[in-house]
Design a protein that fits this description.
Largest sheet: 7 strands, parallel
CATH superfamily: NAD(P)-binding Rossmann-like Domain
Strand order of the largest sheet: 3-2-1-4-5-6-7
Strand content: 5-15%
CATH class: Alpha Beta
Helix content: 40-55%
Order of helices and strands: EHEHEHHEHEHEHHEHH
Number of helices: 10
Number of strands: 7
CATH topology: Rossmann fold
Length: about 260
């Protein structure tokens, strides 16, 4: 089965994984709602998707890092698609901060947690409900292999991704008797803009660096299956690392992460 949503919504669509997911979904003939802050990039991507694939692509310029992001996003849906059900929602918007927690700007830290945790939860709650009522839909929350273990130097970021992972796993169980599919996409270190934003040169984080193409290929393959797992780690080396982080003694994994990130 080739998964072809009639209408998909992707947050954080202006670059990185979000932009690539949007391109892959458009290749299949799906219309899209593209959500991000950067108007110029969204406009360019929307024009590209229309030109290459003949789909509808609607940019929604929004800063999601605020309370009530879900209802605000629903209210901002373009008139052309406001009446149409969403078959796929990808919660990809988020960013990280690198360095000791006490050295990070308090305002920027709160912005990160609001976007990574509060906004994602609000969007999930708002857009998942009509899927359940309709008995159809797919939700992908983008977490991280960092969500499997604490990481000194990325303490609040990986804690936020642990929240996303655990929230999505719980939703998977709550909805398993419905026809709504839910999964947490958990890429390992990936060659995107993440580390530029986070302010870190430690792109590997002790794991194998994957390409955005590898991550999105794994996601699209999983979406083509009838059932989705509670979480998806795209490649074998990071799958092994994620399992190890859950079973090894916490002091050991903390020490390894601290050495890799040069923290303590």
């Amino acid at each position: 089965m080739t998964f072809t949503p009639a209408l998909a919504l992707v947050t954080g669509a202006s670059s990185g994984l979000g932009a690539l997911i949007a391109r892959r979904v458009a290749e299949r003939g799906s219309d899209l709602v593209l959500v991000a802050r950067r108007r110029d990039r969204l406009a360019e991507l929307a024009a590209e998707l229309r030109r290459r694939h003949g789909v509808q692509a609607h940019p929604v310029v929004m800063d999601l890092g605020r309370p009530g992001a879900g209802p605000a996003l629903l209210a901002a849906m373009p008139e052309e698609v406001a009446h149409r059900p969403l078959d796929l929602v990808v919660n990809n918007a988020g960013f990280g901060l690198y360095g000791p927690l006490l050295g990070q700007d308090a305002e920027r830290l709160e912005e990160m947690l609001t976007l990574n945790v509060t906004a994602l939860t609000s969007i999930t709650r708002t857009l998942l409900e009509p899927m359940v009522r309709r008995g159809h839909g797919t939700l992908v929350n983008v977490a991280s292999t960092g969500g499997f273990q604490p990481a000194p130097g990325l303490a609040a970021y990986v804690a936020s991704k642990a929240y996303v992972l655990h929230l999505t796993e719980a939703l998977w169980q709550e909805l398993r008797r419905t026809r709504v599919r839910v999964t947490a996409l958990c890429p390992g270190p990936t060659s995107t803009e993440f580390f530029d934003v986070a302010g870190s040169e430690h792109g590997a984080l002790g794991g194998k660096v994957t390409t955005p193409e590898q991550v999105v290929d794994a996601l699209m393959t999983a979406l083509d299956r009838r059932r989705l797992p509670p979480y998806l780690v795209p490649d074998l080396p990071n799958q092994v690392q994620a399992v190890a982080a859950r079973v090894l003694p916490r002091r050991l994994t903390l020490g390894v992460a601290a050495r890799v990130l040069k923290q303590g």
